[in-house]
Amino acid sequence: MSTVLLTTDGSDLATAAMVRGVELLGRDHRFLALAVVSPAFVPAAAVSPMDSHPTVIDPALEEEIEAEDRAESATELADLNAVLEVDAVPLVETGEPGPTICEVAARVGADVVVLGSHGHGWLQRVLLGSVSHHVLQHAPCPVLVMRLEDTAEG
Description:
Layout: E1 3-8, H1 12-25, E2 30-37, H2 59-84, E3 89-94, H3 97-108, E4 112-117, H4 122-128, H5 131-138, E5 143-147
Parallel strand pairs: 1-2, 1-4, 2-3, 4-5
Helix pairs in contact: 3-5
């Protein structure tokens, strides 16, 4: 039985990618569903509007925001099992998505990582970076990238 690491950013596209990945790979695997919460960065109030000192960080507020984000992600992951029709073990990690996905894949001994790609063009990848590109380059196992387009108009 293979270990499949399903990844999500909480979007409908990510859920569709996981559903399609499960359809392609089959349901006879050990599934882990991973959500990565970005670290919170909350600057405290500056002394004055013209303050040129480095920004002061509010660690208590950052911890509170990260805890809320982690709880929300855990709830979303728990609801995924019904959609995916598998019994995926939920994992919530805090960090930068690309490196964190690769670290978790190595730690759990994943045989394959499934993730979605929004299919953005090269300029957006250069400006924003690409989680799927990072994972493709650094994952310790094969990566199944589900390229899905956002069909919602708006």
